[in-house]
């Protein structure tokens, strides 16, 4: 019996009071105990535990008949070791060590609950972290000594739980230098013991809880074990993957452990293909296939099937390079089964989970787990010698694709078809709540990322497939959910498409496809179509420049008409306004001859929601910018004057109708900022990519300066400045208006090379900012001041670049 005379002795009343506090504070609640009472009781208990004498609570509380009180006794031991160790007498450390081990062994012997034992195990591990480091160590062989003490009490299952906690606690301990090395060495010294303990418990003769604890121990020690100690467990674990067993918990525990080996052990990152990858592939072919077949037949993913989906994903993450390199290999793994066959079987099985029947989030959740694999597989394919580098400027020689490439493309063609089906919404009414719709939209975005990886493998074939699929869907009685899903896929891959080499889009934007899409109702379909148009807006200009044959001029106008039709629909106006802004910004020159049609659009502006008017006027201004400078004057006056007039009107009512005036001012400032952005020279314009010293650019700038001298433009700029000054006088401390002014100042001022007809000089605006800053200094005004000061003294980049070197330097 360990000596515990070194612990403080508390009176019976103190111990009884502590037990009473525990029972009142943590026992079953009563109607007479208020939250304030509970807080007071727990605080009193906490204060009692902080006292040095609280060491004396451990034994009497552990010996109490109430399990809650026993738990608090174990918890007190853990807390005192972890928090109050510095105040504990060093000469009693070994006695405390022996006492804690004995108390724990006794608790095992009398069958105390696992929640109590866990606290005692944590207390022992915490004490070991204090005693093991040092020379000489005050607790050499601590793991072995504890396990032996527990085993003498018949605690084979408990020793497994102890080993889990040891790995967890030491792994997260805040240790440095020699202390950390010494603790890690104490774990390595115990590896033979741990291996023996796990091996003796990983069989069907032990209880399921002990079996699960053993595998949890293996997972906890996985990063400590060398690979040589892990390898013998792999065939054992694969052998436990038996779906015919009545106890599915064994299958799931073995699968979870294999997943950890694949992802976190020394065998991760593609190692051990002969002992890990290939045995699992053989098992998938012989046993895993039947699980998936039953899943598809029953249209139900049970717990075993869900665990298998995670195992497939883990194996794919681990062995993507192996699968890519051996997709067509004829080297046998076992008689009658080659590496190529097993790799193709794996791809077929993971594809089955990617394409599970039903809708993600409503009927299944496994399909999303597989998406990352298709990215890793594409990267692995590129790392093989079979694929050319798509970024290589030197075209590969004309030759037939090797069989490996053909197989990979067949896999990704199937993936493209499967994912197109999976992203389709169910027919209305779906009956889905907002959370379900949001989750499905997140899934669709994730699928979009996966489709980009597929595009890098398939390239033009993928876009051709989708456009052909659309044409086929629209030829008969269309399933609009499938049409919308295909449009979503086309939109998702835009960032990977070389727009200069995408003739398939000419077919998409013509009347055979876009012309057959609905222009009324079908809001989700039309919203996606508008997003596709906005995403591919630069295609019209880039393809026209790169193509040998002239582009159909009606394509852009037909697309524009489709967009404009949706502007007045509140459910679609946001996507329509964005699409229009993108189209006009990137196709200014092509749209400039049709400026009259934009005048009609401006006349109907009142039918468009206020929230999108700034985008519409920015679109119109973008087209105006492509006109000759003198021809810009009337349309600029036509779109800017009404905005300034509304600002003046709002200022006049600021004292009588302050809220309405403020709202109107914010809206008109946003619109004016949008117009200013639209009028700013674009890289798409006739001189956008040219050097500032280019004569054509200089001529363009000079023509703008001449047009600025027109009395109408001078008056317009003066009226604009007066309105801005009045707004700052009234609302300079208003955060929303300050934000709107900030956006306007950034867009309505410019360097000399980007000057527009309505650009304001930086100096007077800087004076207004100083006035506003005197009233209330904010980050907005400071940031704007820095920008305008830089415009007043712009760096001479061309001078720096082109100046000749000074001789002698």
TrEMBL record:
Taking the record's annotation, the residue ranges forming a coiled coil are none
Sorted alphabetically, the keyword list is: Nucleus, Protein transport, Transport
- Tell me the Gene Ontology biological-process terms attached to this UniProt entry: protein import into nucleus
| Keyword Cytoplasm in annotation | no
Where is it mainly found?
nucleus
InterPro entries per record: ARM-like (IPR011989), ARM-type_fold (IPR016024), Importin_beta-like_NTR (IPR051345), TPR_TNPO3_IPO13_3rd (IPR057942)
Entry similarity comment? Belongs to the importin beta family.
Listed name of the protein: Importin-13
Which organism is this entry from?
A: Ephemerocybe angulata
């Amino acid at each position: 019996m360990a000596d515990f005379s070194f612990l403080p002795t508390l009176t019976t009343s103190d111990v009884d009071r502590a037990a009473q506090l525990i029972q009142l504070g943590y026992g079953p609640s009563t109607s007479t105990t208020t939250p304030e009472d509970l807080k007071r009781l727990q605080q009193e208990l906490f204060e009692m535990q902080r006292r040095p004498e609280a060491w004396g609570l451990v034994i009497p509380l552990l010996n109490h008949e109430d399990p809650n009180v026993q738990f608090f006794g174990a918890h007190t031991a853990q807390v005192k070791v972890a928090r109050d160790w510095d105040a504990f007498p060093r000469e009693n450390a070994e006695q405390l060590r022996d006492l804690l081990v004995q108390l724990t062994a006794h608790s095992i012997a009398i069958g105390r609950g696992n929640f109590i034992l866990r606290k005692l195990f944590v207390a022992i591990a915490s004490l070991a972290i204090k005693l093991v480091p040092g020379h000489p160590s005050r607790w050499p062989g601590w793991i072995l000594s504890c396990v032996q003490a527990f085993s003498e009490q018949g605690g084979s299952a408990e020793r497994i739980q102890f080993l889990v906690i040891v790995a967890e606690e030491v792994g997260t301990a805040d240790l440095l230098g020699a202390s950390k090395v010494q603790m890690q060495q104490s774990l390595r010294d115990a590896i033979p013991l741990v291996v023996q303990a796990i091996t003796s418990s990983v069989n069907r003769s032990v209880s399921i809880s002990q079996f699960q604890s053993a595998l949890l121990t293996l997972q906890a020690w996985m990063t400590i074990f060398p690979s040589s100690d892990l390898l013998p467990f792999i065939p054992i674990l694969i052998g436990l993957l038996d779906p015919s067993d009545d106890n599915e918990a064994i299958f799931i525990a073995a699968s979870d452990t294999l997943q950890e080996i694949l992802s976190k052990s020394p065998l991760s990152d593609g190692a051990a293909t002969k002992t890990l990858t290939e045995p699992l592939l053989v098992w998938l072919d012989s046993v895993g296939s039947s699980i998936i077949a039953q899943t598809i037949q029953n249209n139900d993913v049970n717990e075993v099937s869900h665990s298998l989906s995670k195992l497939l994903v883990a194996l794919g993450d681990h062995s993507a390079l192996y699968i890519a390199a051996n997709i067509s290999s004829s080297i046998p793994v076992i008689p009658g089964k080659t590496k190529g066959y097993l790799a193709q079987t794996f791809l077929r099985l993971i594809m089955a989970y990617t394409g599970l029947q039903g809708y993600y989030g409503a009927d299944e959740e496994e399909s999303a787990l597989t998406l990352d694999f298709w990215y890793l597989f594409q990267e692995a394919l590129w790392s093989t010698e079979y694929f050319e580098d798509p970024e290589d400027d030197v075209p590969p020689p004309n030759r037939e694709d090797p069989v490996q490439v053909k197989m990979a493309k067949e896999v990704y063609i199937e993936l493209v078809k499967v994912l197109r089906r999976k992203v389709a919404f169910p027919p209305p009414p779906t009956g889905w709540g907002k959370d379900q719709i949001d989750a499905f939209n997140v899934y669709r975005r994730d699928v979009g990322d996966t489709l980009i990886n597929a595009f890098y493998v398939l390239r033009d074939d993928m876009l051709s497939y989708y456009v052909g699929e659309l044409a086929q869907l629209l030829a008969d009685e269309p399933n609009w959910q499938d049409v919308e899903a295909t449009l979503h896929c086309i939109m998702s891959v835009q960032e990977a498409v070389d727009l200069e080499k995408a003739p398939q889009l000419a077919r998409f934007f013509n009347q055979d496809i876009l012309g057959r899409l609905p222009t009324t109702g079908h809001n989700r379909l039309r919203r996606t179509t508008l997003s596709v148009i906005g995403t591919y807006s630069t295609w019209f200009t880039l393809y026209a420049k790169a193509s040998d044959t002239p582009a159909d001029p009606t394509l852009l106008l037909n697309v524009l008409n489709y967009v404009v039709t949706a502007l007045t629909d509140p459910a679609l106006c946001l996507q329509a306004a964005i699409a229009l802004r993108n189209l006009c910004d990137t196709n200014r020159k092509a749209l400039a001859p049709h400026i009259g049609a934009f005048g009609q659009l401006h006349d109907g502006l009142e039918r468009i929601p206020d929230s999108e008017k700034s985008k519409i006027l920015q679109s119109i201004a973008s087209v105006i910018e492509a006109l000759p400078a003198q021809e810009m004057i009337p349309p600029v006056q036509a779109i800017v004057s009404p905005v300034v007039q509304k600002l003046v009107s709002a200022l006049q009512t600021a004292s009588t109708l302050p809220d309405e005036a403020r709202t109107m001012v914010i809206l008109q400032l946003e619109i004016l900022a949008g117009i200013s952005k639209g009028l700013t020279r674009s890289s798409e314009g006739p001189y956008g990519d040219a050097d500032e010293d280019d004569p054509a650019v200089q001529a363009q700038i000079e023509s703008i300066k001449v047009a600025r001298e027109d009395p109408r433009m001078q008056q317009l700029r003066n009226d604009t400045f007066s309105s801005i000054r009045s707004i700052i006088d009234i609302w300079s401390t208003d955060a929303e208006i300050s934000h709107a002014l900030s956006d306007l100042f950034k867009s309505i001022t410019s360097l000399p090379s980007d000057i527009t007809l309505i650009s304001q000089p930086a100096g007077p605006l800087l004076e207004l900012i100083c006035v506003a800053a005197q009233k209330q200094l904010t980050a907005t005004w400071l940031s704007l001041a820095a920008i305008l000061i830089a415009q007043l003294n712009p760096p001479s980049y061309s001078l720096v670049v082109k100046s000749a070197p000074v001789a002698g330097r």
